[in-house]
Amino acid sequence: MSHDPASLWQSCLAVLKKDLHSQSYQTWIEPLTIQHFDPNQVILVAPDAFFCDWVDEHYLPSLESTVYEVTSWRPEFSFQPRSAHHPTEQPDPVKPLPQARAVSSFALNPRYRFDNFIVGDSNEFAFSAARAVAEAPGKTSFNPLVIYSGVGLGKTHLLQAIGDYCLRNGTAQNVVYVTAEKFISDYITSIRKRDTAQFVSTYRSADLLLVDDIQFFLLTEGSQREFFHTFNVLFQNDKQIVLSADCAPPSLKGFEPRLISRFQCGLVASIDSPDLETRIAIVNHKAELQGVELSQDVAIHIAEAHATNVRELEGALTRVTALAKLTHRPITTDLVSQMLPSLKAQSKEIQLTEVVESCSAHYGITRVEIIGSSRKKEIANARHVSMYLAKTMTSASLKRIGVEFGGRDHSTVIHACKKVEVLIQSHPEFASEIERLRHRVETSSTRAA
Fold it and tell me: Based on the domain organization, do 172 and 258 belong to the same domain?
């Protein structure tokens, strides 16, 4: 076997391409280049520092096992950003940024920026994808980028943060941000006025098209056709498209298959309900923005009362601070309890045991089998779904979920969740099954309250 680094790396890539999902391989492995490869050390060069951290955290076990499979070596791995790999390169002369303009039916909200988006396990992937798109719109494989989640979890924040970043940094000239309903309204108005030229010019000249809440598209044959053509024109000209929805593309209703296919040809990223640690960080951040000082006990008290979404957290904090100001009282846990007396009953936190028990009943597999080590396909599938629901429906950390599922590592939980997400995106029947299971878990939790 040749010990030439380039040849060894190509052999490893061939194995990784077979083992990993194609989207994961193209997004995170293909951009890596080899700098050094011997029995003691492998140095890989990635596009930037974030890319290095992501690959190190999520793909290091795959890289280690593949290198061992190809070479029988167990070297140390390190990752270097491309900018650090070429320290002697002279920077380009500083040029004035071109004048960017927002051609949007809605002005971007200046509060929605990347630097005030609280990142946790539940939204890290979507945030990272959004940031990558904003830095190089139309130049990544994330086109289109589709972000989906339940209500109030940050889809709109990320879409507008992308637009804000592009306008501030000049990475896109013409930024169009609209809701799906506004797109349809503009189209219908142009038809009524017999003037579609302005409509076509506005949307098809965009460098970045951000369409929020596409599940609300009321797609007539004409508007569906127009959106399809707009999508194609932008895509073929390497213009960036970012969409948000309340469910994965295969579960969207009323869309032609060719549109669903277009939505899935880039990157689909989900945002889940924030875990307790993230909710506490959100409460503290919102309090800081309001100029309010909170003790850690109060922040935890508010965060524990709301396990569903960010908007509820913000509303709860607003109510508590308003009461404190009106009554001239300090913000304490007693005040929070007085203002939010029934929240814990309304927002009962789903427990890991409830998820496992619901999956056990659904699949006809015992709890012991689900958290055990059996590799039988039907048991492994039930285990993966259980882990996915545990991650998306409870506030448990990845580490805790791994411990509850037989002492597994958090990377195993991540791998299981990614497998389920891929199936949700590619198999509508499976996506429907997951929704039924969600309802079963929620119903079980409500009865137990």
Answer: yes
Q: How far is CA 389 from CA 45, 406, 417, 426, in A?
A: 35, 16, 8, 18
- Tell the burial category of 74 from Cβ atoms under 10 Å away from its Cβ (0-12, 13-18, 19+): exposed
Bridge partners, 145 (sequence order): 242, 267
pLDDT tens, position by position, 240-279: 999 999 888 888 887 888 889 999 889 999 998 888 888 8
Distance CA 139, CA 149 (A): 25
Residues 205 and 218 in one domain: yes
Residue with tokens 């592009």, as numbered in its chain: 166
Do 285 and 231 sit in the same domain of this protein? no
What is the reported pTM?
0.56
User: Among 85, 113, 143, where does a domain finish?
Assistant: 85
Q: Which of 346, 381, 398 is the last residue of a domain?
A: 346
CA-based nearest residue to 268, from 24, 6, 9: 24
Q: How many domains does the chain have?
A: 4
**Helix crossing, 155-169 with 124-135: angle to 10°?**
20
Angle, helices 410-426/428-448, rounded to nearest 10 degrees: 120
Burial class (CB in 10 A: 0-12, 13-18, 19+), 109: middle
